[in-house]
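tool=predict chain=A
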Amino acid sequence: MFCPNCGFPVPTADSYNFCPKCGSKLVVPVNAPTVIEVAAEPAVPTYGIGNSTPLQEVTNRGIQKKILIVEDDLFIRELYQKQLEISGYEVDAAVDGVEGRDKAFGKVFDLILLDIMLPKMNGLDLLKLLKETDKTKAVPVIILSNLGQDSVVEKGLSLGAINYIVKADITPMEMLKVIQEKIGAS
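tool=predict ok
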């Protein structure tokens, strides 16, 4: 299946409901035929879409880097989660600030992607709490929000976020590059 927006080949076997490249929603026909490719020789399994790195090589690189996404919007959360998993990261997700706090305190993460407008506890309050707690203060946090006012951006950065990104200004692939620049590839 190809994305109608950008033409990117999206595997139907993985049940994608969005394009991993541009983020467009996909409509999968209910009775869409499944295409199975048969190789003449057993192929080395690869990891990710369009990535020819053998799965064993990815596994041998070491422990996967762990990212927590704290985002209440299902579409955005799934979009970034799938893109990061395809790129080799281990991803956990939280739907509100309280769940994000509990997951951040319960597990060690290499990076946290944090929305600001969240139910139960807003992202700025969660960021402040994370940076005041010994266990989580060293974890880099990137704010990923629709709020782009200068005062909100300054507040997020002053509380300890390493970057502030407005969701509408970035594609999933650009976000992946930002993450790789900050914590490296997984």
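DSSP finds six helices and five strands in the chain. The two ends are 27 Å apart (CA to CA).
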